[in-house]
Specification:
The chain has about 290 residues and is an alpha/beta fold. The protein contains 14 helices and 13 strands.
Length: about 290
């Protein structure tokens, strides 16, 4: 079957211009909408609902891509999203990637109030403090999702989680777990500790070794990991707020680990400890 004729062929149409503006943070914040590009992100968005509303509100797709991913287009329509068949140049104009994949969705913001994160009594949380690189933020979110974390919290000094690069780097994980944004780091740490969550700072200069903590059996309870800026880590005032500052041991000759790799190691260490006999997941589930 030959592809249908595109409905949108001009990059200067009102709908295309409105979508393209969402690449900028101020427009995203004003409209409370963001872009999700590629089949994985759009598929996850089409199946996601928040507050009783469908997350995906609009989809731009080339006719050829619509044929290839008919299931995604069908799911988008089932979710009530407006589907536009668009020329490749239109998709390229909306997309923020060098090589667009033929479909771009417009989604409602889906962040969760921090109070709801606390009320859910999380057992594993990733707290991003002053993380500025969107690719790192999205990758840490993906790692948190894979490790079974219940939430990710981004402080008010961190990158916008709806930055297109962060959304792509999360590879759909943005739609899988609660994400709270704009929380001052002091408030986040104090509230988590008050909720019975042990707060650990991940820092290469930490005075505690992750292997030692695992051997001593201290990692099985509810835990929040604080990850800092890619370039300069966590400031002393932030480290002082936490229960302990933990370093990932370097057994080889590498100088250090990048943020996302260190986050994956720390989160999986907690996930493993929590699932072991005596861990909070295997005893009470809380």
């Amino acid at each position: 079957m030959s592809p249908a004729t595109p409905e949108l062929i001009s990059p200067r149409s009102a709908r295309v211009l409105a979508a393209r503006r969402l690449a900028k943070r101020n427009f995203r914040g004003k409209e409370r909408l963001f872009l999700a590009e590629g089949p994985q992100a759009v598929r996850e968005a089409a199946g996601h609902r928040a507050g009783g509303e469908a997350t995906l509100v609009e989809l731009f797709v080339t006719p050829e891509t619509a044929d290839r991913y008919a299931d995604i287009v069908g799911a988008a329509r089932d979710a009530g999203a407006r589907v536009h068949l668009a020329a490749e140049q239109v998709i390229a104009d909306i997309s923020t990637t060098v090589t667009p994949q033929g479909l771009v969705g417009i989604c409602r913001f889906l962040d969760t109030p921090f109070e709801e994160v606390l009320a859910a009594r999380p057992r594993l949380v990733a707290l991003l403090a002053n993380v500025r690189d969107p690719g790192n933020a999205g990758t840490v979110l993906r790692c948190a999702d894979a490790a079974g974390a219940e939430a990710v919290v981004l402080t008010d000094a961190s990158v916008d989680v709806y930055n297109p690069k962060a959304v792509r780097a999360s590879v759909g994980s943005l739609f899988h777990l609660p994400v709270a944004v704009g929380v001052p780091v002091e408030r986040a740490v104090e509230a988590l500790r008050a909720a019975g969550v042990r707060v650990l700072a991940a820092d290469g200069a930490g005075d505690r070794d992750l292997d030692d903590e695992l051997d001593k059996g201290t990692m099985g309870g509810p835990t929040a990991w604080v990850f800092g800026n890619e370039a300069w880590g966590l400031p002393e005032e932030t480290r002082a707020l936490t229960d302990a500052v933990v370093r990932v041991p370097i057994h080889g000759k590498a100088e250090s680990l990048n943020l996302a790799t260190a986050a994956a190691v720390c989160l999986y260490a907690s996930a493993r400890a929590q699932r072991a006999p005596g861990g909070c997941r295997s005893v009470t589930g809380n």
